[in-house]
């Protein structure tokens, strides 16, 4: 069974693999930048970071959308 998405030659497979790897590398780098920005923000907030009182949210009604 032929798959129209399959590469027609080994060279095509290498070209597609390289392009896919570039995309993955780009996304990985973007995620790394975002994670660093979030970590910097958390570090700058320190103890001022608001923390939820999860003990007070143990009942399922606490999680319902407020009208």
Describe this structure in words.
- By secondary structure, this protein is mostly helical.
- The chain contains one helix and no strands.
- It is elongated.
Distance between the termini: 55 Å
Poorly predicted sequence stretches spanning 5 or more consecutive residues: none
Tell me the β content: under 5%
Please compute the radius of gyration using only Cα atoms. 23 Å
Number of helices: 1
Helix coverage percent: 40-55%
| Major sheet characteristics | none
Structural class from helices and strands?
A: mainly alpha
Assign an overall shape.
elongated
How many beta strands in the DSSP annotation? Answer: 0
**What order do the SSEs take from the amino end to the carboxyl end, as H and E?**
H
Oligomer: single chain
- Give the mean pLDDT: 76
Any key phrases for this structure?
67 residues, mainly alpha, 1 helix, elongated
Outline of the structure:
This protein has 67 residues and is mainly α.
Strand and helix layout:
Elements (H helix, E strand, L loop, with lengths): L9 H36 L22
